[in-house]
Design brief:
CATH topology of one domain: Methylamine Dehydrogenase, Chain H
Strand content: 25-35%
GO biological process, one term: amino acid activation for nonribosomal peptide biosynthetic process
Helix content: 10-25%
Largest sheet: 7 strands, antiparallel
InterPro entries: AASDH_AMP, AMP-bd_C, AMP-bd_C_sf, AMP-dep_synth/lig_dom, ANL_N_sf, Beta-ala_Activ/Resist, PQQ_b-propeller_rpt, PQQ_rpt_dom
Strand order of the largest sheet: 25-24-23-27-28-29-30
Structural class: alpha+beta
Pfam family, one: AMP-binding_C
Number of helices: 18
Protein name: Beta-alanine-activating enzyme
Length: 908
């Protein structure tokens, strides 16, 4: 029985059930087709092909399209001709597509209409969804037995939802499509750009569609990250009933167990095979008792038993069968072997060499690695995949890859779960690996590169290591994307990221990415941006983005003034907005003020919060204190402050950002509903998060172009969040959705935190290009003992400026730039202090500050006297924000902390 016959049989029973769903994400509506619609479209295409195409001999038709709702209908229509279909990648450069057509002698290629502008040799031939151009295809036969066997093995029924994880150019897609459609199940298809973003993909698969069966490569699964796999993909309540992993070495049991949440019931399979023998050849179901076993040292996972009609042999280098020991796997079987190149038939008993080596023990095959994974190093035989397996089991390692570079250096590439030191990983590897297996070098990277088929890109093909391996990730101006290890999936991801970053469609950019040097790609982006006339910036203001060769004088124009996109009714208290940020500032009813101006809107203050209107501030400041009299407040012998009582901080919630957090929180709340308060903060994961203050739940998340150390501020109108980034841009995001509104370009990384003028609304920010932007006049300067990374804090009195310095001191200056006091911490201070009132003693103003060694300091704001100190489990570059009795701060252990400020005996 043919594949199309299996689908027709299932469709006759489930004619009105949903056969295919296409979900493009939240930006577009969900599209679904029933089995009736799928068959109708297939018949229409079949009739068209038979009418307009002159077939001779073997019938072969190319299929040139992106993932979409009609893909299964198009494939069925071709098969019903009958003909074989040859999928082509629309994201490949024209020269590669032409080479494929010529090599395969394709006569007809069906082209999706929206792709037609990519080729000049196309003419209209079908009034439906296709256009036609002449050309030439690869011929291979597919066995129905494998699909039927897989369907029974996974117990797929009409109640299941399967995901088309593989591109059409990867042969497992045949299994995914026909196992689903021959069972009456629903096939879920998503566009390529959704697959690129793990969180978005997980939401579509497991929240919106409740996918029950997933076939994927281990690399594709690892892209979700350990936390998302455990909390969503393999959680206790996941919809996923079957997970089949193949195409690469199966993860170790230790790694597999670390991915599963307690109570997870997903059946997990190890599937193995090669394209030349129709996708999958063997399977092994991991017993549930093995997955739940507490034993840490387990044997490797076997390849398992052959599928129906499959012959599996292990042979040594002499071609003899191996029953115990090591050898190469050969696969074959009647009706399982595909035709290669010009073959039209194969001799009976043909066995295809796989290039994979296994160890046979007690009748089971255990995968060792590819033939090219076996090397000789320091006089001893080494399987480099063993190094990868051991490294991946280390707690700090998210994922990794190993390469034997130029047959000289063994290099380990690691994606870490948090900031780690190389030496710590090497130390653990020395405990677990023999000397000849230890890597020569290790490179920490943000993510492993992977092909459009979901496999790890071999490091040899993406790196050029002239010296230090870390230099390999730098891109010369004349580099071409494909020559540097790029492929169609990564090019689509890059295009999507650029368009998201700029908020502008980039026609023609994909072709440039795939065929031209990176400098031309850059120039095309700049030209496209400057051609836009609809920039949402007031006339006469500075340009939104600035070319790197612009003269310094041109960069000092008037600062951009944000025009409110969501106007507030400032005369209505129901629309009042309070934004609390670093430096003790807040935004109320669209007008900047400090905490002393909260008296007119007490409804925004929670019951346990005492506004700083009660803070007593002297009318006249005392003269500057002589520097020799400024001393660090003493500690008792127990290490506790001698003045006042201890303040205790207790964790309320924490929110994982994926990388260390050096930025400081910004709180925004509605006067009419303080319970809706949002915390905005960025991290080194390139992401800005909006988190609910009271629950810790994420409201939105936006990916920027690079790491974020800058702390966000809010615009005067309250509609925008402004933050700097390592990519040299100052981003303006919509506060409600995180959508990028515009970005201003500096000439180097922006680690400084933007500030907004309370009267004009102008944005002030510094850059590592040695310029400060939007400053109109120079007033004064104060010399600290080291570089100042900290941003200034202006307390409620508006008479002092507080900031930290690289020299480990906290400084308090008058508004005229005179020193009032300074306090020495135990490490450098990059965070911005926060002034707040002591809720138990309204006449006292306190200061919260953090040093990089993880210590939180509570000082008296007027004198700098120490009141309390608390230590977090990691370095701290983030700045604290206090709201009521809660203190929020980020830490370099990847967490954002919310700490309760507790008092005893009515004392701080």
């Amino acid at each position: 029985m043919t594949l199309q016959a299996l689908v027709l049989r299932a469709a006759s029973v489930h004619l009105n059930r949903t056969a295919v769903c296409f979900d493009a994400g939240s930006s577009r509506p969900l599209v679904c087709h029933t089995y009736k619609t799928v068959l109708s479209e297939a018949s229409e295409l079949r009739d068209f092909l038979l009418t307009h195409c002159d077939f001779g001999g073997i019938r072969e038709i190319g299929l040139y399209c992106q993932p979409g709702i009609s893909v299964p209908s198009w494939i069925l229509g071709i098969l019903q001709v009958p003909a074989a279909y040859a999928p082509m990648d629309p994201d490949s450069p024209p020269s590669l597509s032409a080479h494929f057509m010529k090599k395969c002698h394709l006569k007809y290629v069906l082209v999706e209409k929206k792709q037609a502008n990519l080729r000049a040799c196309i003419f209209l031939c079908f009034e439906g969804d296709f256009e036609n151009f002449t050309g030439d295809m690869v011929r291979c036969r597919r066995s129905v037995m494998e699909k039927r066997r897989t369907r029974v093995l996974f117990d797929i029924t009409q109640e299941d939802v399967l995901f088309l994880a593989s591109p059409l150019t990867f042969d497992p897609s045949v299994v995914e499509i026909f196992v689903s459609l021959s069972s009456g199940a629903c096939l879920l298809i998503v566009p390529t750009y959704v697959k690129v973003f793990p969180a978005k993909l997980a939401d579509v698969l497991f929240s919106r569609h409740r996918v029950t069966a997933l076939q994927a490569t281990p690399t594709l699964l690892r892209r979700f990250g350990c936390e998302l796999i455990k909390s969503t993909v393999l959680s206790a309540h996941t919809s996923l009933r079957v997970l089949a992993l193949g195409g690469e070495a199966f993860p170790s049991l230790a790694v597999l167990k670390s991915w599963r949440e307690e109570g997870n019931k997903t059946q997990i399979f190890n599937i193995y095979g090669i394209t030349e023998v129709s996708s999958w050849s063997t399977f092994y179901k991991i017993p549930e008792e093995v997955l739940n076993s507490p034993v840490k040292r387990e044997s490797p996972v076997p390849l398992g038993s052959p599928l129906l009609g499959t012959v599996v042999e292990v042979r040594d280098t002499n071609g003899s069968l191996v029953h115990e020991g090591t050898g190469q796997v050969f696969l074959g079987g009647e009706n399982r072997v595909c035709f290669l190149d010009g073959e039209t038939a194969v001799p009976a008993g043909t066995m295809r060499a796989t290039g994979d080596f296994v160890t046979v023990k007690d009748g089971e095959m255990f995968f060792l690695g590819r033939q090219d994974s076996q090397i000789k190093r320091h006089g001893k035989r080494l399987n480099i995949e063993l190094v990868q397996q051991v490294a991946e089991e280390l707690p700090p390692v998210e994922s990794c890859a190993v390469t034997w570079y130029n047959q000289e250096k063994l290099i380990l590439f690691v994606v870490a779960k948090a900031d780690v030191v190389k030496d710590s990983i090497f130390k653990e590897l020395r405990k677990r690996l023999p000397t000849h297996a230890l890597p020569d070098d290790m490179v920490l990277i943000d993510a492993l590169p992977f092909t459009c088929h979901g496999k790890v890109t071999k490091a040899e093909s993406i790196l050029s290591l002239p010296g230090d391996p870390e230099d390999a990730w730098k891109v010369p101006e004349d580099s071409v994307f494909l020559d540097s290890g790029g492929d169609s999936l990564k090019s689509t991801w890059l295009l999507n990221e650029i368009e998201k970053l700029t908020g502008t469609s980039m026609p023609g950019l994909l072709e440039l990415i795939l065929s031209r040097p990176i400098l031309e790609v850059h120039n095309h982006i700049v030209q496209t941006l400057f051609a836009q006339e609809d920039l949402k910036v007031s006339k006469g203001c500075a340009t939104k983005r600035k070319l790197s060769d612009t003269a310094p004088e041109e960069a000092s124009g008037k600062p951009a003034q944000l025009e409110p996109a969501l106007p507030f009714a400032h005369d209505s208290e129901t629309n009042a907005l309070i934004a609390l940020s670093r430096g003790s500032q807040l935004l109320s009813l669209g007008t900047w003020g400090h905490l002393t101006k909260l008296g007119h809107c007490p409804s925004v203050c929670p019951p346990d919060f005492i506004p700083q209107t009660d803070t007593q501030v002297p009318k006249d400041l005392s003269p500057p204190v002589p520097e020799e009299k400024l001393k660090k407040p003493p500690f008792s012998q127990e290490g506790k402050p001698t003045a006042g009582a201890e303040m205790v901080l207790r964790e309320r919630w924490r929110s994982d950002t994926g990388k260390c957090v050096d930025a400081s929180p910004l709180l925004v709340m509605a006067a009419a509903d303080p319970s809706s308060t949002t915390v905005y903060i960025g991290s080194h994961s390139h992401r800005v998060k909006a988190v609910d203050l009271y629950s810790g739940k994420t409201r939105w998340e936006q990916l920027l172009g690079d790491r974020i150390e800058s702390s966000a501020c809010v615009s005067k109108c309250g509609n925008f969040i402004v933050v700097g980034c390592y990519d040299g841009l100052v981003y303006v995001l919509k506060s409600k959705s995180g959508e990028k509104y515009w970005a201003f370009t500096t000439e180097d990384a922006v680690k400084s935190s933007p500030a907004v003028d309370p009267t004009t609304g102008r944005i002030y920010v510094g850059s590592h290009d040695q310029h400060a932007y939007a400053l109109d006049i120079y007033v004064w300067r104060f010399s600290a003992g080291g570089p100042v990374f900290s941003s200034p804090c202006i307390p409620a009195s508006e008479r002092e400026i507080l900031f930290g310095s690289h020299d480990c001191f906290l400084y308090c200056c008058s508004m005229e730039g005179r020193l009032q006091w300074k306090f020495e911490t135990t490490a450098r201070v990059y965070a911005t202090p926060f002034a707040f009132s002591n809720q138990s003693c309204s006449s006292e103003s306190l200061l919260a500050a953090a040093s990089t060694d993880g210590k939180l300091w509570i000082l008296e704001a007027q004198s700098g006297k120490l009141r309390s100190v608390h230590t977090l489990p990691g370095e701290v570059f983030s700045s604290p924000v206090v709201w009521g009795s809660m203190l929020i701060i980020g830490c370099r252990n990847n967490y954002v902390y919310c700490l309760d400020l507790l008092c005893s005996d009515n004392q701080v």
